[in-house]
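Q: What does the assembled structure look like for these inputs?
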Amino acid sequence: MSIHDTLFWFFSIAMLLSGVLVIASRNPVTSAMFLVALFVFMAGLFVLLEAFFLAAIQVLVYAGAVMVLFLFVIMLLDIRGTQRRRFRWLGLAGGLIVAGAFVWELGIILRSPVTAAVTGQTDVGGGLEAVVKPLFANYMLPFEVTALLLLVAMIGVVLLSKKELK
Amino acid sequence: MITLNHYLMVSGLLFALGMAGLVMRRNLLVIFMALEMNLNAANLALIAFSKFNKIADGQVLVFFVIAIAAAEVAVGLAIIVALYRRKQTVNVTDLNSLRL
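A:
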């Protein structure tokens, strides 16, 4: 087993375990902390896939900005750990059925051997250049639209956060 | 040897976890976190396809997904704060004004 394989198993198992803890822990702050761990392990998987630029972005944007937003809102709303409510078996059963059906379906699909169709000749790599070149060549319009969307989102957040909505 | 299938399986398991969280949890913030897990699972699948098919387009798509997810989190959390101001709760069982 090479170092690559070992790292793959370590990162994926740690990531899935933190995912379980995100949805299982009672306190939202604990959930948020395990979500940070999940994002960091996900960045490790990105590095294994040679997507170095996106791994950096993952840590900066997700583990940094998004999680700070989450923690700020938890702090602002002053949410305590949810007090014990009546345990909802229906919710648990529903969640397990949805997840189980999805995994079962996935197992059927992945049992048929999927061989990667080799369309390009060489590895694209994952540095800044590999991502940014197509971004500014083929995907210029979506890039501009995303910029507009971010502006709209910013205005929307400012409007929503005003004292009284009119 | 780690193949494309391994990555797809991990991505699918993470997506299933996220879906289970969406259905099971009642806290609006934790539901939102489960949604982020779903987006990340999709990102992992896209990058795996991009690497094993040797096309860079998958990585560009992930770049867009991350940008839009950041905007979505900002707007979603602002909505949650506005909701909390009116109803004083983030538990979805208490938000039943649309129920018949």
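The radius of gyration of chain B is 17 Å.
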